[in-house]
């Protein structure tokens, strides 16, 4: 859904209401840039850029921040001290408490605060009720582990008078060299420098100072603000700031923080979603192919967003990775306020330590946030997997969803009645098209009052749910954070009575406008509000919902139609009297968290199942509780194309359960575009078709032939590979790994592939896809990074790398390759929904590598409950040794819990029904059988022969073979002898 953008004038309530209603019935328009700030219109962004310009232009520049040597202490893996900021040319200094923590994981953390604000030794303007401290609770929401101090961290003995050295990390291979004057930190791994903090001297912590009103003498002319003024010290937006008809009162005055972070000899940096831009981040200071604006992180309702832009979108993850040949490092800027990031790259002279393993460019980044403390985490890798794992240890790994959640979802704004829902469901069955979930947008409610059903259009939600449940299908209903302000609505009455809503700057309940008109916003920073919210989802309260009802959180940036930049005023107040400016980017996650907790508690004791909650707004940690999607895209080819780097970026940034609206939210796709989008969506971790209320219906069965048939085949491919997808989700849940992976992640030494972002690998399966994203295209050039053989998934055509290879891709063809050396688990029997596949047999596709070997994994559990945490799962590794010609299934599970054996009994009849060998050796040509042995089988069944058929491939295609129905249990150890 999209938010109506308010004009720059203060509207009356009546006009606002008409405007909100009007946007429901008129075509959408392009993003209105005038509704969103540029850096020049954001006071602190403009000041920090000017500060950087001033510092970098001066050859004599020395940053005014110095670590006081006498204050330094080191204990239990943590260094503490005081950084002194010299104010201008005066002798005045500002004390900034510093801690540098070295963690057992090998991560380092730098925190810098401001003593006066920390102690509350300041005066707020306007008699504000806001907190005096810098916001210091972002870690409370984002961090869930990984903070154990390093036992081996120790002060080095080679420090000179101006530095302090700490050795830490695995085998003491990491070093932090802390320079005292000016303060800075250089991070080394194996003796080579990988990250420099404040190397360019752009640290800038705006300290508290009282506002001094200058008296104007009689006859004195006022000096224009632009004249004789250092733009880095421009006071025009220190004390208040206006935009879009709203004035931010700024009771604490200027309080931004800025810092430069450099990555020596790293040309490519990735991350900091969400932006509709390439995976490898562009420079932001102008020039050919570069942006002129910094990347902005300020969660906002931006509909029909523009592409190839650093403009802010719906979510913010301030986590960046830098990559060069065989080395990845990263930083995590933990701050919930509006944040901008500049990226520049500079050519370097050759460094002997980096020859052959790095670029000739260094990437410089400049980070600045409006408020809060400086809280920076530094990761030294050295691999992409190490980086995402370390980040995941801090912020939590991705949720392991129910199995239905990774199948196909059917949505639009809006299915108009309960009969409409059931009719769509029947038509999917009639067309034999699989799907698992159907969604309801805001029109299911009575007058846009959440937790209600429209009595005229959804009079019988129980019948609708039962109808879906018969086919193992689910329903998702939208619940947004804005609560309609209307009399005789119990939800808003309770919200106001218990004072659980966000307040305005005066301490009264904040009123704004959204879909229902006048609305209030629940404050999920308030523990009491969360408790109340959880109660609303109980079956006895949200009448008409059942165990197959799940939830969609939209508009949670929050979107406010008449607010500045379509969101809340920054001087609104949340629980604890923290200003909204401090927590804006965290806000959506708190609502998402509360809904997840509500879904956990809605049922009876003993009926616990994993929640599914989709969110639009997100922050580090959101991945723990659900999925996200890329918001209000358009039915255009370039929006299809950009979805792939956007989702890849989400994956490497710790939030891999992501997707884009298939078909495009706005507009009506051509049948070719719709078909190609379904083929691409097959490779989204979150796979949902969705459309705006003004678009034509576009359910797959309406496309007509050949399009409906081709879309059906794409959907069946997704369902066929669900075992591989679920295994990839489990790896994300336990190790933080991306579910779909860019080339640099899989091939970290392949410099030619570092910037490639239009193709992807699925987990660790070796499946390599390059969706068609151009109109009229009948082929694609896919990049192969290694010298393993690659085989077409459908006809086993052989492709040899490295280099670009052309694959024919007529409309009915999905470009999908299998990398040699992998074993891919799948289920080949077409079903109406994933739940009906629960006890289906497996097919193993064994794709032999250049050495004749292959490996693969399968993770399996009940796909619904949390019993897997008590051992109710199967986790097998499949190994084929090209020398012995044995294929074996080995248990790689950890020690099983109390429910392990019980689950294995429920799966005892689930077997492997087929093994397909791609690249089968010609020596097997005359074989007619192979020998199978299985653990625990009866004496007569321990070794048995089963049929084997070898097939010669056509020209350009691989030879392949099939083991027919070996009848081995998926949960047991077994071996197939091909010798």
Characterize the structure shown:
The chain is an alpha+beta fold and 979 residues long. It folds into three domains: 43-212 and 231-395, Immunoglobulin-like; 403-720, Glycosidases (TIM Barrel), CATH 3.20.20; 743-977, Golgi alpha-mannosidase II (Immunoglobulin-like). 18% of the residues lie in helices and 26% in strands. Strands 6, 7, 8, 9, 10, 11, 14, 16, 19 and 20 form a ten-stranded antiparallel β-sheet that branches. Strands 42-43-47-50-49-48-51-46-45-44 form a ten-stranded mixed β-sheet.
User: Which oligomeric form is depicted?
Assistant: single chain
The CATH superfamily of the largest domain appears as glycosyl hydrolase (family 31)
CATH fold assignment of the largest domain: Immunoglobulin-like
| Helix count from the secondary structure assignment | 16
Overall pLDDT confidence: 93
Q: What does the radius of gyration come to?
A: 29 Å
The unreliable regions are 1-29, 224-228
Largest sheet: 10 strands, antiparallel
DSSP helix fraction = 10-25%
- Overall, the morphology is globular
Question: What is the distance, rounded to the nearest whole angstrom, between the alpha carbons of the first and last residues?
Answer: 59 Å
**Count of beta strands:** 51
**CATH class membership of the largest domain:** Mainly Beta
Query: How many individual domains?
Result: 3
Decide which structural class fits the backbone.
Answer: alpha+beta
Proportion of residues in extended strands: 25-35%
What is the name of the CATH architecture of the largest domain?
Sandwich
């Amino acid at each position: 859904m999209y938010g109506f953008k308010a004009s720059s004038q203060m509207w009356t309530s009546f006009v606002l209401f008409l405007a909100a209603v009007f946007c429901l019935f008129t075509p959408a328009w392009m993003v209105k840039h005038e509704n969103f700030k540029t850096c020049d219109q954001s006071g602190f962004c403009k000041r920090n850029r000017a500060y950087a310009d001033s510092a970098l232009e001066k050859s004599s520049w020395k940053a005014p921040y110095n670590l006081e040597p006498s204050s330094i202490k080191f204990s239990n893996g943590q260094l503490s001290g005081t950084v002194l900021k010299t104010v201008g040319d005066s002798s005045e200094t500002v004390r900034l408490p510093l801690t540098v923590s070295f963690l057992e994981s090998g991560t380092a953390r730098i925190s810098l605060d401001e003593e006066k604000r920390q102690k509350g030794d300041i005066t707020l303007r306007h008699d504000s009720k806001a907190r005096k401290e810098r916001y210091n609770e972002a870690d409370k929401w984002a961090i869930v582990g990984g903070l154990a101090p390093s036992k081996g961290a120790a002060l080095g003995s080679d420090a000179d008078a101006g530095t302090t050295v700490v050795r830490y990390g695995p085998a003491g291979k990491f070093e932090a060299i802390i320079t005292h004057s000016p303060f800075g930190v250089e991070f080394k791994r194996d003796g080579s420098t990988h990250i420099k903090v404040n190397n360019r001297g752009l640290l800038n912590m705006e300290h508290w100072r009282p506002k001094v009103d200058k008296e104007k003498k009689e006859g004195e002319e006022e000096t224009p603000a632009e004249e004789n003024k250092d733009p880095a010290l421009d006071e025009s937006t220190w004390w208040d700031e206006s935009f879009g008809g709203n004035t931010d009162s700024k009771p604490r005055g200027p309080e931004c923080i800025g810092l430069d972070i450099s990555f020596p000899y790293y040309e490519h940096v990735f991350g900091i979603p969400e932006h509709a831009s390439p995976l490898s981040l562009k420079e932001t200071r102008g020039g050919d192919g570069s942006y002129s604006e910094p990347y902005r992180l300020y969660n906002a309702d931006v509909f029909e967003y523009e592409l190839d832009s650093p403009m802010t979108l719906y979510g913010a993850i301030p986590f960046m990775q830098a990559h060069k040949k065989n080395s990845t490092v990263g930083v995590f800027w933990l701050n919930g306020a509006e944040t901008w990031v500049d990226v520049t790259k500079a050519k370097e002279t050759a460094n002997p330590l980096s020859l052959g393993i790095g670029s000739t460019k260094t990437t410089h980044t400049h980070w600045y946030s409006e408020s809060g403390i400086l809280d920076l985490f530094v990761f030294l890798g050295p691999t992409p997997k190490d980086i995402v794992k370390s980040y995941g240890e801090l912020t939590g790994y991705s949720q392991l969803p129910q199995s239905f959640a990774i199948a196909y979802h059917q949505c639009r704004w809006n299915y108009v009645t309960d009969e409409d829902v059931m009719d769509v469901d029947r038509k999917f069955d009639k067309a034999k098209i699989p799907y698992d979930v159907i969604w309801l947008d805001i029109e299911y409610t009575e007058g846009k009052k959440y937790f209600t059903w429209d009595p005229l259009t959804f009079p019988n939600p129980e019948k609708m749910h039962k109808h879906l449940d018969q086919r193992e299908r689910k329903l998702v209903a939208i619940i947004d954070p804005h609560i309609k302000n209307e009399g005789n609505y119990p939800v808003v009455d309770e919200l106001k009575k218990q004072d659980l809503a966000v307040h305005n700057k005066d301490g009264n309940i904040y009123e704004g406008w959204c879909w229902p008109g006048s609305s209030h916003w629940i404050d999920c920073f308030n523990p009491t509000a969360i408790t109340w919210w959880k109660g609303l989802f109980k079956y006895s309260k949200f009448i008409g919902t059942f165990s197959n009802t799940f939830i969609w959180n939209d508009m949670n940036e929050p979107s406010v139609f008449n607010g500045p930049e379509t969101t809340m005023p920054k001087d609104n107040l949340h629980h604890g009297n923290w200003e909204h400016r401090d927590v804006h980017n965290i806000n959506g996650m708190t609502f998402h968290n509360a809904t997840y907790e509500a879904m956990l508690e809605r049922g009876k004791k003993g009926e616990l199942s994993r929640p599914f909650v989709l969110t639009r707004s997100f922050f580090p940690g959101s991945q723990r509780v659900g999925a996200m999607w890329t918001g209000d895209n358009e039915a255009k080819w370039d929006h299809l194309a950009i979805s792939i780097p956007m989702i890849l970026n989400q994956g490497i940034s710790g939030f891999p359960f992501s997707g884009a609206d298939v078909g495009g939210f706005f507009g009506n796709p051509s049948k070719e575009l719709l078909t190609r989008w379904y083929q691409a969506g097959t490779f989204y971790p979150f796979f949902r078709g969705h459309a705006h209320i003004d678009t034509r219906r576009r359910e797959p069965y309406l496309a007509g032939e050949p399009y409906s048939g081709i879309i059906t085949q794409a959907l069946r491919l997704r369902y066929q590979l669900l075992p591989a997808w679920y295994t990839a989700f489990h790896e994300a849940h336990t190790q933080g790994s991306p579910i779909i992976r860019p080339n640099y992640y899989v091939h970290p030494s392949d410099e030619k592939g570092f910037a490639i972002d239009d193709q992807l690998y699925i987990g660790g399966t070796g499946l390599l896809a390059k969706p068609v994203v151009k109109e009229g295209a009948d082929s694609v050039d896919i990049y192969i990074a290694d010298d393993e053989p690659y085989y077409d998934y459908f006809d086993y055509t052989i492709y040899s790398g490295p280099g670009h290879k052309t694959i024919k891709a007529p409309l009915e063809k999905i470009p999908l390759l299998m990398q040699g050396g992998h074993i891919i688990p799948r289920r080949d029997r077409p079903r109406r929904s994933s739940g009906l596949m629960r006890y289906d047999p497996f097919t193993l596709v064994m794709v032999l590598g250049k050495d004749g070997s292959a490996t693969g994994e399968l993770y399996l559990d009940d796909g619904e409950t949390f019993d897997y945490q008590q051992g109710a799962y199967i986790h097998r590794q499949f190994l084929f040794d090209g020398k012995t010609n044995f294929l074996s299934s080995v248990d790689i599970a950890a020690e099983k819990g109390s429910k392990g054996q019980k689950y294995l009994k429920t799966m005892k009849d689930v077997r492997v029904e087929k093994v397909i060998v791609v690249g089968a050796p010609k020596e097997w040509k005359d074989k007619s059988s192979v020998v199978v042995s299985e653990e625990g089988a009866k004496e007569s069944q321990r070794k048995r022969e089963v049929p084997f058929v070898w097939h010669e491939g056509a020209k350009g295609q691989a030879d392949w073979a099939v083991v027919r129905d070996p009848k081995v249990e998926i949960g047991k150890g077994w071996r197939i002898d091909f010798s």
